[in-house]
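To whoever picks this up:

The nightly regression suite flagged GTPase HflX as changed. Nothing in the input moved, so I suspect the structure step. Input below, exactly as stored in the fixture:
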Amino acid sequence: MTGDTTATAVVAKRVDDGTPETAEIRDLVQAAGYELVGEVTQSRTADPALQLGAGKVTELAERVARTDADRVVFDNRLGPYQTFNLGQELPDGTEVVDRFRLILDIFGQRANTRKAQLQVELAELRYELPRAEAKTSLAKRNERPGFMGLGEYDESREQDIKARISRIRDELSNIEKTEQQRRETRRESGFDLVALAGYTNAGKSTLLRRLAADVAVDENDDRHPDLDTTAESQDDLFTTLGTTTRRMELARRDVLLTDTVGFISDLPHWLVESFKSTLESVYQADLVLLVVDASEPLADIQEKLATSHDTLYERNEAPIVTVFNKTDRVEDAALAEKMEALAALAPAPVAVSARDASNLEELRERIDAALPARERERLVLPMTEDTMSVVSWVHDHAHVRTVDYGDQEVVIDFEARPTIVERSHAKASDLVAEA
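Regenerated output under the current build:
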Protein backbone atom coordinates (compact mmCIF):
# COMPACT_ATOMS: atom_id res chain seq x y z
CA MET A 1 0.00 0.00 0.00
CA THR A 2 1.69 3.15 -1.18
CA GLY A 3 0.72 6.73 -1.78
CA ASP A 4 -2.68 8.06 -0.80
CA THR A 5 -4.66 5.24 -2.44
CA THR A 6 -6.07 2.68 -0.03
CA ALA A 7 -5.63 -0.91 -1.19
CA THR A 8 -8.81 -2.93 -1.56
CA ALA A 9 -9.75 -6.47 -0.62
CA VAL A 10 -12.45 -9.07 -1.17
CA VAL A 11 -13.20 -11.53 1.63
CA ALA A 12 -13.85 -15.21 0.90
CA LYS A 13 -15.02 -17.87 3.31
CA ARG A 14 -16.17 -21.49 3.12
CA VAL A 15 -17.90 -23.51 5.85
CA ASP A 16 -18.87 -27.17 5.81
CA ASP A 17 -22.51 -26.30 6.57
CA GLY A 18 -24.60 -23.45 7.87
CA THR A 19 -24.20 -19.75 7.16
CA PRO A 20 -20.64 -18.36 6.96
CA GLU A 21 -19.96 -15.62 9.53
CA THR A 22 -17.62 -12.94 8.21
CA ALA A 23 -17.75 -10.18 10.84
CA GLU A 24 -14.37 -10.97 12.37
CA ILE A 25 -12.47 -11.41 9.09
CA ARG A 26 -13.99 -8.17 7.82
CA ASP A 27 -12.70 -6.42 10.96
CA LEU A 28 -9.29 -7.97 10.42
CA VAL A 29 -9.14 -6.77 6.82
CA GLN A 30 -9.97 -3.24 7.89
CA ALA A 31 -7.49 -3.43 10.78
CA ALA A 32 -4.82 -4.27 8.21
CA GLY A 33 -5.61 -1.02 6.40
CA TYR A 34 -7.59 -2.38 3.44
CA GLU A 35 -10.88 -1.10 2.11
CA LEU A 36 -13.36 -3.97 1.96
CA VAL A 37 -15.06 -4.04 -1.46
CA GLY A 38 -16.91 -7.35 -1.40
CA GLU A 39 -17.22 -10.87 -0.10
CA VAL A 40 -17.91 -14.33 -1.48
CA THR A 41 -19.04 -17.19 0.75
CA GLN A 42 -19.96 -20.82 0.28
CA SER A 43 -21.35 -23.70 2.33
CA ARG A 44 -19.86 -27.02 1.14
CA THR A 45 -17.02 -29.39 1.85
CA ALA A 46 -13.56 -28.07 1.03
CA ASP A 47 -12.24 -28.47 -2.50
CA PRO A 48 -8.69 -29.91 -2.13
CA ALA A 49 -7.35 -27.80 -5.00
CA LEU A 50 -9.19 -24.50 -4.58
CA GLN A 51 -10.85 -24.50 -1.12
CA LEU A 52 -14.02 -23.18 -2.80
CA GLY A 53 -15.87 -25.01 -5.55
CA ALA A 54 -14.84 -24.25 -9.13
CA GLY A 55 -18.04 -22.31 -9.85
CA LYS A 56 -17.63 -20.20 -6.72
CA VAL A 57 -14.00 -19.46 -7.67
CA THR A 58 -15.28 -18.16 -11.01
CA GLU A 59 -17.70 -15.92 -9.12
CA LEU A 60 -14.83 -14.76 -6.91
CA ALA A 61 -12.71 -13.91 -9.96
CA GLU A 62 -15.57 -11.91 -11.45
CA ARG A 63 -16.01 -10.00 -8.18
CA VAL A 64 -12.29 -9.18 -8.06
CA ALA A 65 -12.32 -8.01 -11.67
CA ARG A 66 -15.44 -5.90 -11.14
CA THR A 67 -14.07 -4.19 -8.01
CA ASP A 68 -10.45 -4.10 -9.16
CA ALA A 69 -9.48 -5.55 -5.77
CA ASP A 70 -5.80 -5.83 -4.88
CA ARG A 71 -6.13 -8.78 -2.52
CA VAL A 72 -8.38 -11.74 -1.74
CA VAL A 73 -8.42 -12.73 1.93
CA PHE A 74 -9.69 -16.20 2.84
CA ASP A 75 -11.05 -16.78 6.31
CA ASN A 76 -9.97 -20.39 5.80
CA ARG A 77 -6.50 -21.81 6.13
CA LEU A 78 -4.97 -22.20 2.67
CA GLY A 79 -2.29 -24.71 1.76
CA PRO A 80 0.55 -23.61 -0.54
CA TYR A 81 -0.95 -25.45 -3.52
CA GLN A 82 -4.39 -23.95 -2.96
CA THR A 83 -2.83 -20.50 -2.82
CA PHE A 84 -1.05 -21.09 -6.11
CA ASN A 85 -4.13 -22.57 -7.82
CA LEU A 86 -6.35 -19.70 -6.73
CA GLY A 87 -3.79 -17.21 -8.03
CA GLN A 88 -4.02 -18.88 -11.43
CA GLU A 89 -7.81 -18.42 -11.49
CA LEU A 90 -7.89 -14.78 -10.38
CA PRO A 91 -6.96 -11.67 -12.41
CA ASP A 92 -3.22 -11.12 -12.80
CA GLY A 93 -1.61 -9.37 -9.89
CA THR A 94 -4.25 -10.38 -7.31
CA GLU A 95 -2.65 -11.36 -4.03
CA VAL A 96 -4.19 -14.35 -2.22
CA VAL A 97 -3.73 -14.72 1.54
CA ASP A 98 -5.46 -16.56 4.35
CA ARG A 99 -6.50 -15.20 7.75
CA PHE A 100 -3.24 -16.24 9.36
CA ARG A 101 -1.08 -14.39 6.83
CA LEU A 102 -3.35 -11.37 7.34
CA ILE A 103 -2.92 -11.54 11.12
CA LEU A 104 0.82 -11.66 10.67
CA ASP A 105 0.61 -8.54 8.49
CA ILE A 106 -1.30 -6.72 11.23
CA PHE A 107 1.13 -7.88 13.88
CA GLY A 108 3.99 -6.66 11.72
CA GLN A 109 2.40 -3.20 11.44
CA ARG A 110 1.95 -2.96 15.23
CA ALA A 111 5.29 -4.42 16.36
CA ASN A 112 7.07 -1.46 17.97
CA THR A 113 9.37 -3.28 20.40
CA ARG A 114 12.22 -5.72 19.85
CA LYS A 115 10.24 -8.47 21.55
CA ALA A 116 7.17 -7.90 19.41
CA GLN A 117 9.27 -7.78 16.24
CA LEU A 118 10.95 -11.06 17.13
CA GLN A 119 7.62 -12.72 17.81
CA VAL A 120 6.23 -11.54 14.47
CA GLU A 121 9.30 -12.82 12.65
CA LEU A 122 9.06 -16.15 14.48
CA ALA A 123 5.43 -16.54 13.45
CA GLU A 124 6.22 -15.59 9.85
CA LEU A 125 9.01 -18.16 9.70
CA ARG A 126 6.73 -20.85 11.10
CA TYR A 127 4.17 -19.88 8.48
CA GLU A 128 6.75 -20.04 5.71
CA LEU A 129 8.47 -23.28 6.76
CA PRO A 130 5.84 -25.77 5.49
CA ARG A 131 5.59 -23.80 2.25
CA ALA A 132 9.36 -23.97 1.75
CA GLU A 133 9.23 -27.68 2.46
CA ALA A 134 6.40 -28.09 -0.05
CA LYS A 135 8.38 -26.29 -2.75
CA THR A 136 11.38 -28.52 -2.20
CA SER A 137 9.37 -31.73 -2.03
CA LEU A 138 7.28 -31.03 -5.12
CA ALA A 139 10.18 -29.82 -7.20
CA LYS A 140 12.24 -32.89 -6.25
CA ARG A 141 9.46 -35.29 -7.20
CA ASN A 142 9.07 -33.65 -10.57
CA GLU A 143 12.80 -32.97 -11.01
CA ARG A 144 11.93 -29.49 -12.18
CA PRO A 145 12.86 -26.47 -10.07
CA GLY A 146 10.04 -23.98 -10.08
CA PHE A 147 7.41 -26.63 -10.90
CA MET A 148 3.84 -25.23 -10.83
CA GLY A 149 5.24 -21.73 -10.48
CA LEU A 150 6.24 -22.31 -6.88
CA GLY A 151 9.63 -20.76 -7.51
CA GLU A 152 13.18 -22.02 -7.48
CA TYR A 153 13.72 -24.42 -4.64
CA ASP A 154 16.73 -24.42 -2.41
CA GLU A 155 17.07 -27.08 0.26
CA SER A 156 19.25 -24.74 2.28
CA ARG A 157 16.26 -22.38 2.66
CA GLU A 158 14.57 -24.87 4.97
CA GLN A 159 17.69 -25.08 7.09
CA ASP A 160 18.03 -21.29 7.12
CA ILE A 161 14.47 -20.95 8.39
CA LYS A 162 14.98 -23.57 11.10
CA ALA A 163 18.26 -21.97 12.20
CA ARG A 164 16.65 -18.53 12.38
CA ILE A 165 13.74 -19.93 14.41
CA SER A 166 16.24 -21.38 16.88
CA ARG A 167 18.11 -18.06 17.21
CA ILE A 168 14.88 -16.11 17.74
CA ARG A 169 13.76 -18.56 20.45
CA ASP A 170 17.06 -18.05 22.23
CA GLU A 171 16.77 -14.25 22.07
CA LEU A 172 13.16 -14.32 23.26
CA SER A 173 14.21 -16.60 26.11
CA ASN A 174 16.81 -14.04 27.19
CA ILE A 175 14.24 -11.24 27.00
CA GLU A 176 11.85 -13.29 29.11
CA LYS A 177 14.55 -13.87 31.75
CA THR A 178 15.03 -10.10 31.97
CA GLU A 179 11.29 -9.54 32.27
CA GLN A 180 11.02 -12.23 34.95
CA GLN A 181 13.73 -10.47 36.94
CA ARG A 182 11.79 -7.22 36.51
CA ARG A 183 8.64 -8.85 37.86
CA GLU A 184 10.50 -10.15 40.90
CA THR A 185 12.01 -6.70 41.49
CA ARG A 186 8.54 -5.18 41.36
CA ARG A 187 7.23 -7.68 43.90
CA GLU A 188 10.22 -7.03 46.15
CA SER A 189 9.35 -3.34 45.88
CA GLY A 190 5.90 -4.06 47.25
CA PHE A 191 3.85 -4.10 44.03
CA ASP A 192 1.10 -6.60 43.28
CA LEU A 193 0.96 -7.62 39.61
CA VAL A 194 -2.41 -7.74 37.85
CA ALA A 195 -2.81 -8.72 34.20
CA LEU A 196 -5.67 -8.00 31.80
CA ALA A 197 -6.52 -10.86 29.46
CA GLY A 198 -9.29 -11.48 26.94
CA TYR A 199 -10.24 -11.32 23.30
CA THR A 200 -9.58 -8.38 21.03
CA ASN A 201 -12.12 -5.56 21.29
CA ALA A 202 -13.29 -6.66 24.74
CA GLY A 203 -12.27 -3.23 26.02
CA LYS A 204 -9.08 -4.12 27.91
CA SER A 205 -7.16 -0.97 26.97
CA THR A 206 -10.09 1.26 27.94
CA LEU A 207 -10.35 -0.56 31.26
CA LEU A 208 -6.62 -0.10 31.81
CA ARG A 209 -6.99 3.65 31.40
CA ARG A 210 -9.99 3.79 33.73
CA LEU A 211 -8.33 1.80 36.50
CA ALA A 212 -4.95 3.51 36.17
CA ALA A 213 -5.85 6.80 34.56
CA ASP A 214 -3.72 9.34 36.37
CA VAL A 215 -1.10 7.51 38.40
CA ALA A 216 2.10 6.87 36.46
CA VAL A 217 5.16 4.90 37.47
CA ASP A 218 8.30 7.02 37.70
CA GLU A 219 9.52 7.10 34.11
CA ASN A 220 13.13 7.26 35.30
CA ASP A 221 12.72 4.02 37.24
CA ASP A 222 14.45 1.28 35.24
CA ARG A 223 12.19 -1.32 36.82
CA HIS A 224 9.40 -0.17 34.52
CA PRO A 225 10.64 0.21 30.92
CA ASP A 226 7.25 -0.92 29.62
CA LEU A 227 5.49 2.05 31.22
CA ASP A 228 3.00 3.72 28.91
CA THR A 229 1.18 6.75 30.31
CA THR A 230 -0.88 7.11 27.13
CA ALA A 231 -2.22 3.59 26.54
CA GLU A 232 -4.49 3.70 23.50
CA SER A 233 -8.20 2.97 23.67
CA GLN A 234 -9.49 2.23 20.21
CA ASP A 235 -12.29 0.20 18.68
CA ASP A 236 -9.70 -1.69 16.71
CA LEU A 237 -8.13 -5.14 16.67
CA PHE A 238 -4.62 -5.62 18.02
CA THR A 239 -4.25 -2.08 19.35
CA THR A 240 -2.11 -3.68 22.06
CA LEU A 241 0.45 -6.00 20.50
CA GLY A 242 3.02 -5.98 23.25
CA THR A 243 2.43 -5.27 26.91
CA THR A 244 1.48 -1.94 28.46
CA THR A 245 1.95 -1.43 32.20
CA ARG A 246 0.55 1.37 34.35
CA ARG A 247 0.36 1.94 38.07
CA MET A 248 -2.94 1.61 39.92
CA GLU A 249 -3.37 2.66 43.54
CA LEU A 250 -5.75 0.84 45.82
CA ALA A 251 -6.50 1.90 49.36
CA ARG A 252 -4.08 -0.56 50.96
CA ARG A 253 -1.66 -1.52 48.20
CA ASP A 254 0.18 -0.51 45.07
CA VAL A 255 -0.67 -2.43 41.90
CA LEU A 256 0.95 -2.62 38.49
CA LEU A 257 -1.70 -3.33 35.88
CA THR A 258 -0.57 -4.84 32.55
CA ASP A 259 -2.55 -5.01 29.31
CA THR A 260 -1.55 -7.71 26.82
CA VAL A 261 -2.26 -8.74 23.24
CA GLY A 262 -5.87 -9.83 22.77
CA PHE A 263 -6.86 -13.39 22.03
CA ILE A 264 -8.45 -14.14 18.68
CA SER A 265 -10.49 -17.15 17.63
CA ASP A 266 -9.26 -20.15 15.65
CA LEU A 267 -5.56 -19.36 15.81
CA PRO A 268 -3.33 -22.29 14.85
CA HIS A 269 -0.96 -23.68 17.46
CA TRP A 270 2.15 -22.37 15.69
CA LEU A 271 0.85 -18.80 15.84
CA VAL A 272 -0.15 -18.99 19.51
CA GLU A 273 3.21 -20.57 20.31
CA SER A 274 5.06 -17.71 18.60
CA PHE A 275 3.48 -15.18 20.95
CA LYS A 276 3.53 -17.20 24.15
CA SER A 277 6.25 -15.04 25.71
CA THR A 278 3.84 -12.10 25.59
CA LEU A 279 1.49 -14.15 27.76
CA GLU A 280 4.16 -14.63 30.42
CA SER A 281 2.96 -11.39 32.00
CA VAL A 282 -0.40 -13.14 32.39
CA TYR A 283 0.99 -16.47 33.57
CA GLN A 284 3.25 -14.78 36.14
CA ALA A 285 0.69 -12.32 37.51
CA ASP A 286 -0.73 -12.36 41.02
CA LEU A 287 -4.24 -11.91 39.60
CA VAL A 288 -5.78 -12.11 36.11
CA LEU A 289 -8.76 -10.01 35.03
CA LEU A 290 -10.42 -11.92 32.19
CA VAL A 291 -12.35 -9.27 30.24
CA VAL A 292 -15.27 -10.24 28.01
CA ASP A 293 -17.65 -8.20 25.88
CA ALA A 294 -21.02 -8.58 27.60
CA SER A 295 -22.88 -7.26 24.55
CA GLU A 296 -21.92 -10.24 22.37
CA PRO A 297 -24.29 -13.20 21.85
CA LEU A 298 -24.33 -15.74 24.67
CA ALA A 299 -22.89 -18.53 22.52
CA ASP A 300 -19.93 -16.35 21.48
CA ILE A 301 -19.15 -15.36 25.07
CA GLN A 302 -19.37 -18.99 26.16
CA GLU A 303 -16.98 -20.14 23.45
CA LYS A 304 -14.50 -17.35 24.19
CA LEU A 305 -14.58 -18.00 27.93
CA ALA A 306 -13.94 -21.70 27.39
CA THR A 307 -11.03 -21.02 25.03
CA SER A 308 -9.58 -18.37 27.34
CA HIS A 309 -9.67 -20.80 30.25
CA ASP A 310 -7.86 -23.42 28.18
CA THR A 311 -5.14 -20.87 27.43
CA LEU A 312 -4.90 -19.41 30.92
CA TYR A 313 -5.09 -22.59 32.97
CA GLU A 314 -2.36 -24.21 30.86
CA ARG A 315 0.31 -22.43 32.93
CA ASN A 316 -1.44 -19.86 35.08
CA GLU A 317 -1.74 -20.39 38.82
CA ALA A 318 -3.13 -17.00 39.78
CA PRO A 319 -6.81 -16.48 40.59
CA ILE A 320 -9.02 -15.25 37.74
CA VAL A 321 -11.75 -12.65 38.08
CA THR A 322 -14.08 -12.46 35.08
CA VAL A 323 -15.08 -8.92 34.10
CA PHE A 324 -18.20 -8.46 31.98
CA ASN A 325 -17.43 -5.21 30.18
CA LYS A 326 -19.53 -2.97 27.92
CA THR A 327 -22.63 -3.21 30.10
CA ASP A 328 -23.70 0.10 28.58
CA ARG A 329 -24.50 -1.85 25.42
CA VAL A 330 -26.76 -4.51 26.96
CA GLU A 331 -30.05 -4.36 28.86
CA ASP A 332 -29.94 -5.28 32.55
CA ALA A 333 -32.28 -8.26 32.12
CA ALA A 334 -30.23 -9.67 29.22
CA LEU A 335 -27.02 -9.18 31.19
CA ALA A 336 -28.46 -11.03 34.18
CA GLU A 337 -29.52 -13.93 31.95
CA LYS A 338 -26.05 -14.19 30.42
CA MET A 339 -24.31 -14.08 33.80
CA GLU A 340 -26.60 -16.81 35.14
CA ALA A 341 -26.10 -19.00 32.06
CA LEU A 342 -22.33 -18.60 32.28
CA ALA A 343 -22.03 -19.10 36.04
CA ALA A 344 -20.03 -22.31 35.63
CA LEU A 345 -17.41 -20.62 33.46
CA ALA A 346 -17.53 -17.24 35.20
CA PRO A 347 -18.47 -17.58 38.87
CA ALA A 348 -19.13 -14.28 40.64
CA PRO A 349 -18.15 -12.00 37.75
CA VAL A 350 -17.98 -8.22 38.01
CA ALA A 351 -20.08 -6.27 35.50
CA VAL A 352 -18.68 -2.89 34.45
CA SER A 353 -18.68 -0.35 31.70
CA ALA A 354 -15.16 0.92 31.11
CA ARG A 355 -16.56 3.43 28.65
CA ASP A 356 -18.92 4.99 31.22
CA ALA A 357 -16.68 4.21 34.23
CA SER A 358 -19.61 2.48 35.94
CA ASN A 359 -19.16 -0.05 38.77
CA LEU A 360 -15.38 0.31 38.78
CA GLU A 361 -15.31 0.69 42.55
CA GLU A 362 -16.74 -2.83 42.96
CA LEU A 363 -14.05 -4.08 40.60
CA ARG A 364 -11.34 -2.38 42.64
CA GLU A 365 -12.70 -4.04 45.77
CA ARG A 366 -12.65 -7.44 44.08
CA ILE A 367 -9.08 -6.88 42.92
CA ASP A 368 -8.03 -6.00 46.45
CA ALA A 369 -9.81 -9.05 47.90
CA ALA A 370 -8.45 -11.49 45.29
CA LEU A 371 -4.80 -10.45 45.52
CA PRO A 372 -2.45 -12.30 47.91
CA ALA A 373 -3.19 -11.57 51.53
CA ARG A 374 -1.08 -8.94 53.24
CA GLU A 375 0.54 -9.50 56.61
CA ARG A 376 0.06 -6.94 59.36
CA GLU A 377 3.22 -6.16 61.27
CA ARG A 378 4.26 -3.94 64.19
CA LEU A 379 7.90 -3.00 63.79
CA VAL A 380 9.89 -1.42 66.62
CA LEU A 381 12.96 0.49 65.43
CA PRO A 382 15.65 1.93 67.69
CA MET A 383 16.41 5.58 67.10
CA THR A 384 19.66 5.81 65.09
CA GLU A 385 21.03 7.93 62.26
CA ASP A 386 19.53 5.50 59.73
CA THR A 387 16.10 4.99 61.35
CA MET A 388 14.29 7.57 59.23
CA SER A 389 15.56 5.99 56.01
CA VAL A 390 14.02 2.66 57.13
CA VAL A 391 10.76 4.42 57.98
CA SER A 392 10.78 5.97 54.51
CA TRP A 393 11.49 2.54 52.95
CA VAL A 394 8.49 1.02 54.73
CA HIS A 395 6.28 3.86 53.50
CA ASP A 396 7.45 3.17 49.94
CA HIS A 397 6.90 -0.60 50.10
CA ALA A 398 3.91 -1.10 52.38
CA HIS A 399 0.60 0.33 53.53
CA VAL A 400 1.45 2.17 56.72
CA ARG A 401 -1.38 2.41 59.24
CA THR A 402 0.35 4.42 61.98
CA VAL A 403 3.81 5.64 62.97
CA ASP A 404 4.56 6.52 66.60
CA TYR A 405 7.74 8.50 67.28
CA GLY A 406 9.26 8.24 70.75
CA ASP A 407 12.47 9.50 72.27
CA GLN A 408 14.23 6.16 71.98
CA GLU A 409 12.30 4.28 69.29
CA VAL A 410 9.89 4.42 66.38
CA VAL A 411 6.95 2.02 66.13
CA ILE A 412 5.44 1.37 62.71
CA ASP A 413 2.14 -0.47 62.21
CA PHE A 414 1.84 -1.58 58.57
CA GLU A 415 0.53 -4.15 56.10
CA ALA A 416 2.67 -5.62 53.33
CA ARG A 417 3.53 -8.66 51.26
CA PRO A 418 5.30 -11.39 53.28
CA THR A 419 8.58 -10.71 51.48
CA ILE A 420 8.42 -7.03 52.44
CA VAL A 421 7.71 -7.93 56.07
CA GLU A 422 10.73 -10.24 56.04
CA ARG A 423 12.97 -7.52 54.58
CA SER A 424 11.70 -5.02 57.15
CA HIS A 425 12.80 -7.39 59.92
CA ALA A 426 16.27 -7.54 58.39
CA LYS A 427 16.48 -3.76 58.22
CA ALA A 428 15.30 -3.49 61.84
CA SER A 429 17.98 -6.01 62.89
CA ASP A 430 20.64 -3.92 61.16
CA LEU A 431 19.51 -0.85 63.14
CA VAL A 432 19.65 -2.80 66.41
CA ALA A 433 23.19 -3.86 65.57
CA GLU A 434 24.13 -0.24 64.94
CA ALA A 435 22.52 1.07 68.16
